[in-house]
Amino acid sequence: MQLTETKKEIVRRPDIRNVVIIAHVDHGKTTLVDCLLRQSGQFRDTELKGERILDSNDLERERGITILSKNIAIPYRGVKINLIDTPGHADFGGEVERVVTMADGCLLLVDAAEGPMPQTRFVLEKALAAGVKPIVVVNKVDRPDGRPSEALDEGLELLAELGGEDQLDSVGFVFASAKEGYATTDPAVRTADMRPLLDLLVDHLPGPAIEADAPLRMMVTTLDWSEYVGRIAIGRITGGEIRPGQAIDLWGRDGKRKTKIAGLHVFDKLGRVPTEMASAGDLVAIEGLDDVEIGDTICAPDQGKPFKRLTVDEPTLEMVFSVNSSPMAGREGKYVTTRQIKGRLEKELERNVALRVEMIPGTEAYAVKGRGVLHLAILIETMRREGYELSVGKPRVIFKKIDGKDHEPFETLRVEVPTEAMGPVMELVGHRRGQLEELAQRGEYSLLKFLIPSRGLIGLRTRLLNATRGTAVIHHRFESYRPVEGDVPCRANGVLISMLGGKTMPFALFALQDRSDLFVPAGVEVYEGMIVGENVRDNDMTVNPCREKKLTNMRASGSDENVILKPPRDMSLEAALEYIEDDELVEVTPQSIRLRKILMKEADRRRVGRNQR
Predict the structure, then answer these.
(1) Per-residue pLDDT reduced to its tens digit, 239-261
(2) Is the pLDDT of residue 561 over 80?
(3) How far apart are CA 104 and CA 124, in angstroms?
(4) What is d(CA 211, CA 209) in angstroms, rounded to the nearest whole number?
(5) How many CB atoms lie within 10 A of CB 2?
(6) What is the pTM (predicted TM-score) of this model?
(7) Integer distance in angstroms from the first to the last C-alpha of the chain?
(8) Half-sphere exposure for 86 (CA within 13 Å, toward CB)
(9) How many Å apart are CA 89 and CA 68, to the nearest integer?
(10) Is the distance from CB of 286 to CB of 224 less than 8 angstroms?
(11) Could you tell me where the DSSP H helices lie in 417-471?
């Protein structure tokens, strides 16, 4: 990124290191940060409670993944190390693309057994494109199946493959076990602490590039929000100094406007502290800028030019969000109207740069576009926990016209599975137009790499896990747009649809469970058009789950059956979104996730079916 259009002397600031942490899901980056925090000597035991300290919101802790990037600062040898924790899942690539612009170095973390994974490639590619200098950390060297030397070689090969050949001669590396709390230059030698890693961060990575004697210039890369001060703009200063109360020019989408800084904070330890002055190279949080957006540029008054606005990869998937129109609408939610849903989506757009929202003409529904099912499912889950009720349609991939022809997104699918269960994986993926590109063996496991249309991935994870009895490890990432393939098979089974409203009865469910897989237990309320189970056949079937046993005043031996119900299938939000077909919706409320038909009356569904013949 060019800092200014005029020639300025660019120097490196020696007392700061801005480092972004890059790793695949579950390779231990948040655990590594925990370890560095505990060993820094800057915190009391009561300040660092539990595990995955940076995974601060409920969704991150429940799912064990990082969703939002976060900043912390650790002092070491007189140097302030600003660590930026990034999500490892490719669906949250928008978070990564924003924050890598704040860093000068990256810490590439790879698992000693698994090596670099598809999503490691995605994040590292973005970091190298931003010009950061990498170091490689091979984590989990204490794993019994670890192969640290091979994992290091694979990490270096990935660097070379992504355009980092010129850095291979000078790449620093270290082996570590974040769980055991040590880092070492030799995986066979255990040390006492993490100092080898901290020394590598200070000695090997450069300080931030700053413009000597230049006017103030900074890009807003992250937004935070406070009930007391409103929006908080976060970014790295590339030139000049900044103080509270200072007048500035704020360059937004619509041009320049003059404003004033109300408050200024720098990152310190786990949080932010107020400061009277910050200079080039510092990561800062600025208060008092109304209507500031990600990608805006802050400049000294009447000096300097704005940065080129941030661009992120385009969305590949869309879902339709609309108000909840079921008979149970408004019972559990606090925010149920189209206006409230629209306001919440507009608020999300302020900080979620990878999201797109468009109103569908002639309706009161919104097409919400994102990077993948997980990206949009996290948004839906966040909204339902805030009290929103809504209906969500089937995920659809976004097609694109290239040279006058329709193209669709393709993804790289990597499956690690016991060799004995490889057959069902090959069959299921091949059935969805996946093409095998690579096959490798690692002990008792086979590593399969496929190229598959994004359409084929929707609903595939559940089927793969069922076919392999939960032993498959599945990862995927966007690869490119390619010409549209043929049709991908729809869901093989039909569903059971309730014909009336009421409470489900054990007697009725017991009669249904032999020819279906139920989604609801006994004693819950259902309504006409609600999906209550999966049929063993390929057709939809209307049933009465509320039927009671007729009572008589006669009793005979052997006439009563002992009603024992199987546990219903637990449908998570992602599973429900991937399960539904085009004529179905997921009803999302703060307390429930239900599946339903768009047309709830059977007569309406039959009429539409006749018209489509």
Answers:
(1) 888 999 889 999 888 888 889 98
(2) no
(3) 13
(4) 7
(5) 6
(6) 0.79
(7) 57
(8) 34
(9) 11
(10) no
(11) 422-431, 454-457, 460-467
